[in-house]
Amino acid sequence: MGVAVEVRNTAPPRLHLVFAGLGLAFLVIFSWVLFHEGAAEWRTTQARFRRLETTVKNPHQLAQAAGVGGLRQIWLPDLGRVDRCETCHLGIDDPAFARAPAPFAAHPGTWLSTHPTDRFGCTPCHDGQGQATDYATVAHQPQPFVTRPMRPLETIEANCGVCHRALDPPDAPRLAEGRRLIVESGCFSCHEIPGFEGMTFRGPSLDSIGYKVRPAWLTSWLKDPKGYLPQSKMGNFRLSSDEIGSLQGFLLSQRAQVPLDSTGVDWKKADTANGRALFGELRCVSCHAVNGRGGTAGPELTRIGDKVRRDWLFSYLKDPHRVQADTPMLQYRLSDPQWRDVTAFLLEQYSSADTGAEPPPVTYQDARVLAAGRAVFERRGCPSCHRLAAIKDAGRIGPSLAGIADRDPDELPYGTNVVRHTTDNYIFLKVLLPDTLGQTSTMPTFAFTPADAAKIALALASIRKTDLPASYVLRRPAPVPYRPGGKFGELVARYRCLSCHTVGGFGGDLSTVPLDRIGSQLQRDYLVKYLLNPGAVRVSVEARMPVFHMLPDEAKTIADYFSMVFLDDGVEQYDTRFTAEEARRGQELYGQLGCQACHQLGTKGGYVGPELSETGARLRPGWIAAWLSKPQIYKPGTLQPDYGLSGADARALTAYLTSLGRSPAAKARGGNAQ
Amino acid sequence: MTKKDVLPDPVRRSMFAIGCIAVGAATAGFLAATFRFLVPNVLYEPSRRFDIGPPSDFPPGAVTFLPDRRLYVFNGPDGFYAISSICTHLGCNVKRGGPGFECPCHGSRFDENGQVAQGPAPKALAWYALSLSPHAQLVVDLDQQVSPEFRLRA
Amino acid sequence: MSQTIGSRTLTWLDGARRSVCRIGWPATDKDRAAAMISSLFLHIHPARVSRHVLKPTYTFALGLISGILFIVLAVTGLALMLYYVPYPPEAYRSMKDLQFVVTFGIVLRNIHRWSAHAMVGVVFLHMCRVFWTGSYKPPREFNWVIGVVLLLLTLGLSFTGYLLPWDQLAFWAITVGTNIAAYAPVVGDQVKFLLLGGHMIGPMTLLRFYVLHCVMLPLAMLLLISLHVWRVRKDGLSGAEIHASPTEELAGAFPASTKTYGLMAIGKRPRASVEARDPNDEVFAWPHLLYRELLVALAVIIVLHIVSLVFMAPLEEIADPTRTPNPAKAPWYFLGLQELVHYSALMGGVIVPTLLVLALLAVPYVDRGAAGSGRWFAPERKMANTIFTSLAAVFVVLTIVGTLFRGANWAWVWPWK
Predict the structure, then answer these.
(1) In chain B, N or C: fewer CB atoms in 10 Å?
(2) What is A244-300 written as a DSSP string?
(3) H helix runs in C239-381, sequence order
(4) Shortest CA distance from B54: residue in chain A
(5) Confidence of residue B1 (pLDDT cuts 50, 70, 90)
(6) d(CA A630, CA A636)
(7) Looking at the whole model, is its pTM more than 0.90?
(8) In which residue ranges of chain A is pLDDT below 50?
(9) Alpha-carbon A387 to chain mean position
(10) What is the ipTM of this complex?
(11) Are residues A445 and A491 in the same domain?
């Protein structure tokens, strides 16, 4: 009552108008604040999900669901992350939502089984701003002030590599391929790359290159290695013609050793037809391609005649280990005339039409040129890959790539390339076109295809600064170098077994047969026979073991060693006294299981698996049974199906296979395979 | 009255009233909003619903204590069940003692089903619902209490 | 019977009400005066005020707005403290939480941020107003000094608060700001070391800035504001004395009082507000002053809400000591200094700020004449006004240049390009 009276009497009237206006404005503004909060994107998204949930979920699951409402977050204190993605991605961990529309669909694949969200969250794999709760600020697309927007699926494997150090996760093919390319290209020769510690990459040593190559070839090679050999691992250093001149002079004067061993060879008697025959017999193409066909372990030989000098080639073939100690090439046992024929064949067959006669060796005397060449050699980091006794390896000349994925994208050079300024794009460009980034770069151009460069960039993008808790990091133990001693060791070195085969994970990957349990797999007599004259076990496989021309004693030494040392204890204890009944049942099973679809027996059967007619003389029964029972254990990824055979069935099949191809004498002894 | 004082009384009065009501309403809303602000929307604590691993991690007939979850998980003859280790008296951790549980703080005892056997504890230990996740993991839901008849067959 | 119970209840309730609030709605002039005097909070105002000072164009309510902003900042700041963790990198995470998951968190943070910026500006303008109206003339010299210290405290509060989000903007602004401080002669490096709690900005710095921002500086501010207002209350508002006779315009709006009031006559009065006191020139603070203050407060709050809904407080990437943004800028109110530091570190970092503060503190003791007080741009004070205005303008221009016209490497840029 009193209020109105007082108002009339004392308060200036226009103030009331202002008061009413301001009061209403305050109310409106405050309602706006409420609306602003209530209309948050995640709330409307959850409202949509509630409608969907009733239709998608069956009643059983509905009863289990706690009901959706409010913000959800995964808190990972170990990783320092808070991911709220599940606030909107509500069906992400529930197979019932496999076909639900975005953003409610279940996560594809089995990723969440192997990477449960309560341990890994979302952003460790996907990046983006996990704390945010609306589409834009989550950085599904790049956002200002968000360092790591969500990775597109094309590059997401980079984040696999953050935890899966060195150990390549099976479902990240691009990462694995990128890392393989890094190993193959030897990036770690010039750059320290975390995850590739202890790996070495070696080009041929250059101590005797003056004896080895023709000057014209060296010039063209230094200018553009890919011009001679498209598969060359050496990049194009973009050298000026002056640099090439001095470097060539410097290299051709490298004759530290005298590797040549061709005195007394009568080249006039060279028989290229015989050379051709030997070239085929030695299976050179298992490692060396010609005309684009063949193995990749050694350099392609298509234009070898343009490159090397005759006497050097002869000496090298005769004893590769003396000429180039670190070569993976094995040492055959051939006579000098035979090597003469092979050399002549190679030089005649595999050279360009315009290649002239071999020029005499030149000795470069100009000290200034030599010094300049040496300077180029050192400045461009050649010693990182090529050993040269005259020059000490100064270590890696490239910058360390540790934490490269966390470089500030705004401080990296992009040159004239029109790309979004991200660290990923920088790495990609640097790998693909190192000379276009607006800075003089000593990094050679490797002429990767854009696809390969992208894979390498992806693998490098997984090298982060972040210190992850050890429990999140997976590393592959480095293989222990296998260096046997004694006579066996000498033979392994001479025939370079480990260029193709592995022992304990150490060695080359050309052969599909690791040697770790070879003694339990193959019979000793068969091993001797095979080493002396390797044949094809698999009809369809092109890469075969070369014919070493091994001495019988050598083959016996190796076979004995295998049969005594390289054994699998789990396979050794096997009762080999088979009954005739078992063999008969085994034969039945052979038909029933459809073995002949892949394996050849006699004249019938497929070409996928090894030929089986000599099995009884080749394989040891314990191995056959073990292999038939659990093929994937012994050779992950093999095509051999796991039939889930019972012990008795496996034994029956073993009995049957053991009976194949045994000598009548062995058969007469009955049952016993050995 | 001057020329500036043009508003008749009732209008002035209603202006003042409108202002008061609007400001009052906004202030009331402001207080409500303040209260809402104080309610946390996300919690920095372990999830109330969590995986404890596959059923095979819990051998039949055994009792597993999960210290960081304050939970006993039983794999009994009829199935799995989970009993809280938080004493209902004042929240200490109960320990296994004899067939049941005993609280070291104030001497409460519970039988093997968590029912009060002795001591100051006012009620039985809590039983929590167990379920199997789509990835075949045992899931405990601390927001879902169940009766001692509960068993999960897995 | 029921009527008896009802009236008894009413009496009882009225008694309870009186125990809390002794006066009802002030219906008489006596009560209006008593309402002001008997309330702890309201008696910072006199019972009656000069009409002249109610005129918005005299003060533009800048002091009042500063006070309102301080209250807004205190309230929102307290609320933000409930979610803020003063330790890196949790500090940054808690800012993200305020932005994304705390109900009304982002609005609160925006209001706090923009209020803080507004307060720096408003306090500065308040100082300008006081200078231009000559309001620091005796007996108010010391209140001017307190005001200058309050301006410095406002800057300090804003500066310490700037680091708390722990983002790139915060980190590098404080890096630049503390390095400007390090140019101080002799003690510069020690001051920086103490301020940072180390040689570089880290967890200790954050904690120090947090405590300064949330406890020490606000307490100092509260103390000085009380003193500042108390002296205004005691000395009266400037300008009242020279407008002793009611103007024609005001006479219409405020019915002239016809009585004299003795309540305020107890005790010795400060000279300014007593001698010039003319009952006809004065109106009751309740409701004339309080109503206006309420309206200003409402207007300020509305504007703050609108600004906070439209403009988001910045939050960049998490602080990274290895990544310096280009350009790295101090908070905007120090960019005038940074611009000077760009030309001469000694000039911008030491000489100019020291001289400015000393000059400001000395103003009332150098410009001593009483003439020209209480009016805007009094012709008698042409000289003083010219000097002050030029200096203020130069500083404002430098600040604007540093804020808008400086890009990467502190090179000149046009903001509209």
Answers:
(1) N
(2) HHHHHHHHHT---S-----TT--GGG--HHHHHHHHHHTTGGGTS-BTTBS-SSS--
(3) 248-253, 271-275, 290-310, 335-343, 345-346, 352-366
(4) A113
(5) very low
(6) 10
(7) no
(8) 1-9, 62-64, 665, 668-674
(9) 25
(10) 0.85
(11) no
Nearest chain A residue to B41, by CA: A71
B23 contacts A23? CB cut-off 8 A: yes
pLDDT digits (tens, 9 = 90+) for C158-194: 999 999 999 999 999 999 888 888 888 788 889 899 9
Cα A528 from Cα A560, distance rounded (Å): 9
Residues of chain A above pLDDT 90, percent? 20
Task: Give the domain extent around B127.
Answer: 49-146
Dump pLDDT digits (tens) for A412-445: 888 888 888 889 999 999 999 888 887 788 899 9
Domain span at A617: 580-669
Check residues C143 and A599 and name the one with the higher pLDDT: C143
Rounded Cα gap, residues A206 and A316, in angstroms: 14
Write the single-letter amino acid at C372: G
Rounded to the nearest angstrom, the minimum Cα separation between C145 and chain A is: 35
Write down the H helix ranges in C267-319. Answer: 271-275, 290-310
What CATH number has the domain bearing residue B91?
2.102.10.10
pLDDT at residue C309, rounded to an integer? 93
Integer Cα distance of C179 and C324 in angstroms: 14
Nearest by CB to A131, from C93, C316, C317: name it: C93
Residues in chain B: 154
Looking at the structure, tell me whether residues A340 and A216 fall in a common domain: yes
Q: What is the token pair recorded at B71?
A: 């939970």
Number of domains in chain B: 1
Query: Is residue A203 classed exposed, middle or buried when 0-12, 13-18 and 19+ CB atoms within 10 A define those classes?
Result: middle
> Given this model, what pLDDT does residue C2 score?
63
Q: Which two tokens stand for residue A58?
A: 């069956």
Cα of C108 to nearest chain B Cα, Å? 10
Which DSSP string do the residues of A490-521 spell out, in sequence order?
HHHHHTTGGGT-EETTEE-SS-S--STTHHHH
**A556 shares its domain with A587:** no
The β-bridge partners of B116 are B110
| Chain C nearest CA to B32, separation (Å) | 11
